[in-house]
Design a protein that fits this description.
By secondary structure, this protein is an alpha/beta fold. The chain is 17% helix and 15% strand. The protein has helices spanning 7-16, 27-48, 219-227, and strands at 2-4, 52-54, 74-76, 96-98, 118-120, 140-142, 162-164, 184-187, 206-210, 231-235. A 10-stranded parallel β-sheet has the order 1-10-9-8-7-6-5-4-3-2. The radius of gyration is 20 Å and the shape is globular.
């Protein structure tokens, strides 16, 4: 049995238990500072006609100008105050889009980004995830840390190779049964009721599971997956504080 503990996570967790009161926290000043950094990155991208614009954790005061950047192939604006996909609706050429942990709630414009191969929409309070079902060119999808719970929406994503459902509300994996292309699946922090659908995934190479979610009844299925050559990684939870 392969069991992994991440020491770095322990360090971060311990650090998070400590509170630094030496400097007063000013959210508005911090956001303005990050936006200034984002504006500098954007200006450089425009000047060089960059292919990848990475604004993760920085963002902008105004995103309206992004829609005209026809030279972009990848846009990363996760962990920002971005809220409206309509502001980037001109970027239909994108093949990679990261909007995880933003303020986006309406995913209905997603299908207009018809060339996307990679989409990260984790940690979103989306009204509905149904538009994802129309993203048929996707090869990688991160949709965890959310209330997403319907794997049947992913049946039509026949090119999907990498799927991250970690910390989602998924309990039923039957929607993935017989998926033709899925190679890597992340189920960390979920509570799947039955792993049997994974045995029908002919291309599956690896799956990660939270050790707390593994029941005795799952052990034979895990053994069967490993017998097929699938790497089953069991992530051990360590609680601190």
């Amino acid at each position: 049995m392969k069991r992994i503990v991440f020491p770095a996570l322990l360090t971060l967790a311990l650090t998070g238990c400590q509170t630094d009161t030496s400097k007063p926290w000013n959210p508005a000043a911090y956001e303005a500072e990050q936006h200034a950094k984002g504006a500098a990155i954007l200006a450089d991208c425009v000047a060089t006609r960059c292919k990848t614009l990475n604004l993760d954790s920085k963002g902008l005061a105004d995103y309206a100008g992004l829609g005209g950047l026809s030279h972009l192939s990848a846009l990363m604006i996760s962990y920002t105050n971005f809220s409206d996909l309509g502001q980037i609706n001109g970027l239909t050429q994108l093949d990679e889009l990261h909007i995880g942990a933003t303020r986006v709630t309406d995913l209905s414009p997603l299908p207009q980004f018809r060339n996307l191969k990679l989409l990260h929409i984790q940690d979103l309070d989306a009204v509905s995830f149904a538009p994802v079902a129309r993203m048929t060119r996707l090869e990688e999808l991160a949709i965890g840390s959310s209330h997403f719970d319907d794997t049947s929406l992913l049946r039509g994503l026949t090119r999907l190779k990498v799927l991250d459902l970690s910390y989602s509300n998924v309990t039923d994996l039957s929607g993935l049964r017989g998926h033709k292309s899925l190679e890597r699946l992340d189920l960390l922090g979920t509570q799947p009721k039955d792993l049997a659908p994974l045995l029908t995934l002919k291309r599956l190479k690896s799956v990660s599971l939270d050790d707390l979610s593994i029941t005795p009844a799952m052990r034979p299925l895990i053994a069967a997956l490993r017998a097929k050559g699938v790497e089953v990684v069991e992530i051990e939870n360590v609680v601190v504080c």
